Amino acid sequence: MASGEFTIEDLRRILHEAAGESDGADVDVGTMDTEFIDLGYESLALLETGGRIEREFGITLDDSTLFESPTPRALIEAVNARLTVREPS
After folding, report:
1. What residue stretches are annotated with the Carrier domain (predicted)?
2. 63-74 tens-digit pLDDT
3. Which CATH number do you get for residue 30?
4. pTM of the full predicted structure?
5. Which residues contact 61 (CB under 8 A, 6 or more apart)?
């Protein structure tokens, strides 16, 4: 299980694993405020991404968190907020 901070590199890697290397635009500092839909990531890719984040980082993300985080920046902030309140193992 990963620990610490969820970063843009983590998000990029997990998105590529969930949606495939060739699907969607690359997420980087220049696209932090671009909506996932505009980057080419559909709801199924985001659900798979959320599941992978949960497993890797040991947190729970409900569907509303995923869909109320329309940009990479918003999702990274939501995940990091969950990481800071996560119960110790």
Report:
1. 5-83
2. 889 889 999 999
3. 1.10.1200.10
4. 0.86
5. 50, 53, 54, 78, 79, 82
